[in-house]
Write a structure and sequence with these properties.
Blueprint: H1 3-15, H2 23-32, H3 45-52, E1 62-63, H4 74-89, H5 91-95, H6 101-115, E2 122-125, H7 128-138, E3 146-150, H8 159-168, E4 171-175, H9 187-195, E5 202-208, H10 220-229, E6 234-238, H11 250-253, E7 257-260, E8 273-277, H12 279-284, H13 292-296, H14 312-328, H15 330-349, E9 354-356, E10 369-373, H16 378-389, E11 391-392, E12 394-397, E13 401-405, H17 413-427
Bound molecules: pyridoxal-5'-phosphate.
């Protein structure tokens, strides 16, 4: 068949609901061979150097800001580019014609495997903020009800509650977190901060799985069980800094809702989100946006993801990102993250003038650490590191005054060593 006739055949077949040849696979076949290069092996210095070459990051900068904005490996970029191109060959077919329905469901299943949850519990949204907005707007909270979170809760998971509390009449209580004590905290201490705050009127407890300032890992099961036992109805977790970095095991964790941004630690294209809802909430939560798709998806989690046209090419490429993460291996990644945490912790301990502001224990920490200076304010040092040496990181001026370092799985030991030297020089 000529390519024009093949094209026509595909369109006619799709609109008649017939099975069509799989143009997606044809387009992606060359790309599916790419992930084998993105392995981590034992995580040796050499292997990580090879992995690092799979990313586009500019060699002139030292990028340790994956907690802000992640980056995709070449395989994912190429898959995304191919999907965008394919879409433009017949936009209707791919966007509305159903051609990417099956790949989208595969992506949902991939997310489900990563998160330890059934596929029917996961919506593919646009970012973490969207998930929390849906919760704040869609729960039936009113006068007499309370939502609680600590000062470590990110704005993306906080502002929506404050906004809706004014309209719906519920209360938001933001409590302090013992930031100064964080270096010595164990998971039980982290849980106690939240559980001690619960009162009879607390209906929703919100917390980050890993917070974005000092990288405290919150023990999901301990907090969820304790909160439910104290009468909390909805335990809502911000997974922006954990999904793809550390195990989530959502179904076993007992949490009710979990939202994340896959561009960070799943290394997916930007503008995608994941949103987990336990069954009871899937039925109870009112969708924020309503349109024709909603009726079609009634009773499913897709009520929370479809509200008009969206970039399905990015959704398809999320599947490639999940493939790459699979090829890297959950255990191998975890080991790599743990070893970087240890390398930085040791270096800070051995350097006069630097102080560690994150949990020392790996089971209470993450690949996101805060390092302060005894004699300088961190933002001033951060600006100089960027200007003079191209170091890209995040600075905080208070609670704590620290530089936040967030290496990803492909950050090399060489890069960390350069960073440590620069920090030591700044501290001196
Ligand atoms: C812990 C945490 N929650 C939420 C967000 C907001 O993410 P998004 O802008 O993708 O919604 C971020 C962004 O850095 C974050 O670190």
């Amino acid at each position: 068949m000529s390519s024009r006739r093949q094209f026509l055949h595909r369109v006619v077949a799709a609109s008649a609901g017939l099975a069509v040849a799989d143009p997606l696979r044809a387009a992606f076949d060359p790309l599916l061979r790419i992930p084998h290069r993105t392995t981590l092996g034992t995580g040796s210095t050499e292997e990580v150097r090879r992995l690092r070459a799979e990313y586009f990051l500019d060699d002139a900068i030292l990028y340790v800001n994956h907690a802000s904005i992640g980056t995709v490996p070449r395989a994912v970029h190429e898959a995304h580019a191919a999907a965008l191109r394919l879409c433009e060959t017949n936009p209707w077919l791919y966007m509305w014609g159903g051609e990417w329905e099956a790949p989208r469901e595969e992506v949902r299943e991939g997310l489900a495997r990563l998160l330890g949850a059934p596929a029917e519990a996961i919506a593919i949204t646009h970012n973490t903020t969207e998930g929390f907005n849906q919760l704040a707007a869609g729960l039936d909270l009113g006068p007499g009800d309370e939502v609680v979170f600590t000062e470590l809760n990110h704005a993306g998971a906080s502002v929506c509650w404050e906004h809706w509390s004014e309209r719906a009449g519920f209360t938001v209580r933001r409590i302090p977190f013992p930031v100064e004590a964080a270096p010595d905290m164990a998971p039980e201490d982290v849980a106690a901060v939240h559980l001690d705050a619960v009162r009879p009127e607390t209906r929703v407890l919100v917390f980050p799985h890993v917070d974005n300032r000092i990288g405290v890992r919150h023990p999901l099961r301990l907090i969820a069980d304790g909160a439910h036992a104290r009468g909390v109805e909805v335990v809502a977790v911000d997974g922006a800094q954990s999904a793809g970095m550390i195990p989530c095991d959502l179904d076993a964790s007992g949490v009710d809702a979990f939202a994340g941004s896959p561009h960070k630690w799943i290394q997916a294209p930007k503008g995608l989100g994941l949103f987990y809802l336990r069954e009871e909430l899937r039925e109870r939560l009112r969708p924020t946006w309503v349109t024709w798709g909603q009726a079609q998806w009634d009773g499913t989690v897709r009520r929370f993801e479809d509200y008009g046209t969206r970039n399905l090419a990015a959704v398809v490429a999320l599947g490639d990102a999940l493939d790459v993460q699979d090829a890297l291996g959950g255990d191998a990644k975890l080991q790599r993250y743990r070893s970087m945490h240890a390398r930085l912790l040791d270096a800070v301990g051995a350097t006069a003038g630097l102080s560690w502001r994150s949990p020392r224990r790996w089971d209470a920490g993450a690949s996101l650490v805060a390092i302060g200076f005894d004699a300088h304010s961190a933002p001033a040092v951060g600006s100089e590191l960027l200007r003079e040496y191209g170091v890209v990181l995040r600075s905080f001026g208070a609670r704590p005054d620290a530089l936040r370092i967030s290496p990803n799985v492909a950050t090399t030991d060489d890069e960390l060593d350069v960073l440590i030297e620069l920090l030591a020089a700044a501290a001196g």
